[in-house]
Specification:
With 140 residues, this protein is an alpha+beta fold. It contains three helices and eight strands. It has two domains: 64 residues, 2-Layer Sandwich (GMP Synthetase, Chain A, domain 3); 61 residues, SH3 type barrels (Roll). The termini are far apart.
Length: 140
């Protein structure tokens, strides 16, 4: 479904995450390069994406939303884009006995990224394939 949505998005926008939430509700987190993710933009996305997902046989509700301040990091490109920002990362399998990490993204390559831990300042390399969930950690 994500490929169908990405193909239908307006120029300059990006699908951050697509997930089914609460039964048949398809939630799309969308960002854009040239402005805010406001009501007008979400309406444009809904009008573009609706027919595409219907063409794939999906007839449930679609919710379009901003990724928010604690933006999910779902692709290697997201980690590269947010080098220097704090992130919370949860691994699917423990690494050295732990699954949860909080730190600053120091660098990101093709297969892994380096996180400088807030607790103790150690650097840890985490493979993208082991990440179960990752979000920016922004303090307001």
């Amino acid at each position: 479904m994500a490929e169908v949505v990405e193909g239908a998005l307006p120029q300059g926008s990006e699908l951050v995450d697509a997930r089914f939430s609460g039964g048949p509700l398809l939630t799309l987190l969308v960002d854009r390069e040239d402005g805010p993710v406001d009501h007008e933009f979400c309406t444009r996305v809904a009008n573009a994406v609706g027919p595409a997902v219907e063409g794939e046989g999906y007839d449930g509700p679609v919710e379009i939303s901003s990724p928010g301040i604690e933006r999910p990091l779902t692709k290697p490109g997201h980690f590269r884009r947010f080098v220097g920002h704090e992130a919370r990362v949860r691994l699917g399998e423990p690494l050295d006995g732990r699954r949860n990490f909080v730190g600053v993204i120091e660098s990101a390559g093709e297969a892994a990224f380096v996180l400088k831990l807030l607790e103790g300042g150690a650097e840890v390399e985490l493979p993208f394939g082991s990440v179960a969930r990752a979000n920016l950690k922004e303090d307001i």
